[in-house]
Amino acid sequence: MRFDILTLFPEMFEGYFTHSILQRAQDAGHIEIGIHNIRDYAPGKHRITDEPPYGGGGGMVLKAGPIFSAAETVIDGAGSSDIPVILLTPQGRLFSQEIAAELACEAHVILLCGRYEGIDERVRQHLVTDEISIGDYVLTGGELAAMVVVDAVTRLLPDVLGAIGAADSDSFSTGLLEGPHYTRPETFRSWQVPGVLRSGHA
Ligand code: 6GU
Predict the structure, then answer these.
(1) Catalytic residue among 106, 117, 130, 151
(2) Tens digit of pLDDT for each residue in 130-165?
(3) Cα–Cα 20 to 30 A to 169, which of 49, 56, 132, 138?
(4) Residues 2, 90, 124, 130: which is the catalytic one?
């Protein structure tokens, strides 16, 4: 599966995507992640990506042009016209394990990270095919949400969890670990591992 992320802050993704299971999933070829700086698609010396909206009202709004250029570069490069373009926004449908499973069926998705007070409405009307929120609170941008979506979807892909998932496919597929879990030592600060769990050990 391929994820292409359109953002004004590409550096934010470095740490998260280069560790643990997400790095291994990329190394093994289960996923590919492309990070695209929307600013690179903005014209002019100043590469302006946002400006005050028509009608005023305070804040800054992301311009349509650079976002369309970035998305169309990805779409043209993929040679496919039906790649979902998902806007991460607090106004979107609430992300869930079920939506993660839906997305895991796609070969390719584009994740568009919203910022500032909003985005030119023509992006929502003519480019975006779905809008996702990760919870009932407001973040400063969609970047964290995009990381959450990539993580939750990737771990559902066949073979990504490998032996771990195979060992307990039911609890891993729902994302709900059956607890509780203990590790050695048997007694930690006088708190003991329950006898029922100890009895199986040598
Ligand atoms: Cl996807 N974006 C922002 N800015 N805030 C959020 C969110 C997304 N999901 C929950 N809060």
Answers:
(1) 117
(2) 999 999 999 999 999 999 999 999 999 999 998 665
(3) 132
(4) 90
